[in-house]
Amino acid sequence: MRHYCSAMAVLLLCGVIGSSLFVVTFLIDGLTRPGYHPVRHPVSALALGSRGWVQAANFIVCGLLLAAAAVGILLATDNPLLAAAAGVFGLSLVASGVFPMDPMRGYPPGTPDDTPSTTSRTHQWHDWAGAAVFVSLPITALIATLQSDELLLTVYSGATTAALVALSASFGQAWENDSPRTGLIQRAMIIVGWAWFAVFCGTLLP
Predict the structure, then answer these.
(1) What is the distance between the alpha carbons of residues 125 and 130, in angstroms, rounded to a whole number?
(2) CA gap 201, 198 in Å, rounded
(3) Which domain, by its residues, includes 181?
(4) pLDDT at position 3
(5) How far apart are the first and last CA of the chain?
(6) Among 7, 47, 127, 134, who pairs with 100 as Cys (CB 3.0-4.6 Å)?
(7) In terms of pTM, does the model score above 0.70?
(8) Where are the transmembrane segments (predicted)?
(9) pLDDT tens, 58-71?
(10) How many domains does the chain have?
(11) How many CB atoms within 10 Å of residue 153?
């Protein structure tokens, strides 16, 4: 039993660490990247250019940590649907790093400041992976809302679900219109969602 609890704790800590590391990395990288504008450009654009390996590694490493946390969630809650949604979240993040988006909208520097009429297959796969990330996370929070017996966690998970849905819709509209605040909206969505995932994993620690 002691080994079981220890393994579960390590897996859940992967969720806390992976969520926190992902946010800290893209915030620092975005603020220090020449030619990159965090308020406008999406986080995915950081995987482009000579320093693109930093964000690509951030996607993959943190995605694997979050996928590992899904196993910890299963052990802690015995809820396979909740764990599966969390697992999709983590693995989709990995796919976002494996398949980078195309250069566009002025980044990397020298790229035309518009959206190309056609995109590569890799960019399309990145879009699908991103869609899976931002659908699976609110689903995870929703399931957590419905299965939690703790009032505070239930309220927090429910509020996070609603916020993620609203921010996702706002981000989608901003992206389509090439809003100058596209990156800011996406960052708000990521911070809200990833913070919740870290807190949720933390509450499950034995």
Answers:
(1) 9
(2) 5
(3) 2-203
(4) 67
(5) 12
(6) 47
(7) yes
(8) 7-28, 53-74, 81-99, 128-146, 153-172, 184-205
(9) 999 999 999 999 99
(10) 1
(11) 18
Beta bridge partners of 107: 104
**Residue 200 burial class via C-beta count within 10 angstroms: exposed 0-12, middle 13-18, buried 19 and up:** buried
Contacts of 143 (CB under 8 A, 6+ apart): 79, 81, 82, 85
Residues 6+ apart with CB under 8 A from 34: 109
Question: In terms of C-beta distances under 8 Å and separation of at least 24 residues, what long-range contacts does 99-104 make, across chains too?
Answer: 99/123, 99/125, 99/126, 99/129, 100/44, 100/47, 100/48, 100/52, 100/56, 100/126, 101/42, 101/44, 101/45, 101/47, 101/48, 101/126, 101/127, 103/48
Q: What is the 3-state secondary structure (H, E, C) of the chain?
A: CHHHHHHHHHHHHHHHHHHHHHHHHHHHHHHHCCCCCCCCCCHHHHHCCCCHHHHHHHHHHHHHHHHHHHHHHHHHHCCHHHHHHHHHHHHHHHHHHHCCCCCECCECCCCCCCCCCCCCHHHHHHHHHHHHHHHHHHHHHHHHHHHCCCHHHHHHHHHHHHHHHHHHHHHHHHHHCCCCCHHHHHHHHHHHHHHHHHHHHHHCCC
**Which amino acid appears at position 109 of this protein?**
P
pLDDT score of 4: 63
Tokens of 134: 């931002």
